[in-house]
Amino acid sequence: MTPSRDISRLIEIMEQLRTPGTGCPWDLEQTFASIAPYTVEESYEVADAIARNDLIDLCDELGDLLLQVVFHARMAEEQDAFSFGDVVEAITRKMIRRHPHVFPDGSGYIASSDVKGTWERIKAEEKAERAARKPMKEAPASSLLTGIKAGQPALARAIALQQKASTVGFDWNDPRAVLDKIREEADEIEAALDHGDKSDIASETGDLMFALVNLARHVDADPEMALRGANAKFERRFAYIEQALVARNRSLEEATLKEMDALWNEAKEREKEGSFRIPISS
């Protein structure tokens, strides 16, 4: 098997990886649900490469994202649901239909704002058609939250849900009340830990995260940016630990947790004093 510029080669590779007996054990164990987090992760890595204007990385990350599409399509084909070809046909049909000013005969220039309006109108038509093709189900009860898009990242959707609920007064008036809720959720995690139920622990952890997003909203902090800042802070302080150990001719593996904690606190104090510097080994 050799590399190729032909998409069929990637499809063949995935088929081999998913072949029982001769394929890859890890790939064979995967399901739509287990692969979904990787799909989301690859999307973010594409966005990160774009933000860094790194076109070499972008090429690589787009390949990783394409692999996710091929992976999902292969698992669906194994269930006789659809194939990669069906995915391509569906998106090509959609793009042609949503650009009537270009396809099939190209009726000429229209303003960008008009393109968006046409796109949304046709998208709504397609949604109605899909709903009509599906088996009849009892109509879901109307909800204030129905319009909140399910496909958003969890942090963004949590904010949207909370903001929507707040429009009818379902909200706290004081950030300190949210802090009380955070403490309550932390206590519930502790109780769940005592029982040792992983599902319950995960559920309570989600409740705590939702409450933390609520706090960020009440203090006018973007939770995504706040978490990015915390990530950067962690990286900076951990780098301090690594370089301080190098200066002492010690490795991370040799260091004790107590020693690393002391260096972490040292980095933290130096940040407060404005004298933060990564130690340089001699």
Automatic annotation (TrEMBL):
InterPro entries: MazG-like_dom, NTP-PPase_MazG-like_C, NTP-PPase_MazG-like_N, NTP_PyrPHydrolase_MazG. Keywords: Hydrolase. It catalyses: ATP + H2O = AMP + diphosphate + H(+). It holds the Pfam family MazG. The keyword NAD does not apply. It is an enzyme of class 3 (hydrolase). Its EC number is 3.6.1.8. The keyword Metal-binding does not apply. One of its GO terms (molecular function) is ATP diphosphatase activity. SUPFAM superfamilies: all-alpha NTP pyrophosphatases (SSF101386). It comes from the Bacteria. Residues 30-103, 176-237 form the NTP pyrophosphohydrolase MazG-like domain. One of its GO terms (biological process) is dUTP catabolic process. Belongs to the nucleoside triphosphate pyrophosphohydrolase family. PANTHER family: NUCLEOSIDE TRIPHOSPHATE PYROPHOSPHOHYDROLASE (PTHR30522). This is Nucleoside triphosphate pyrophosphohydrolase.
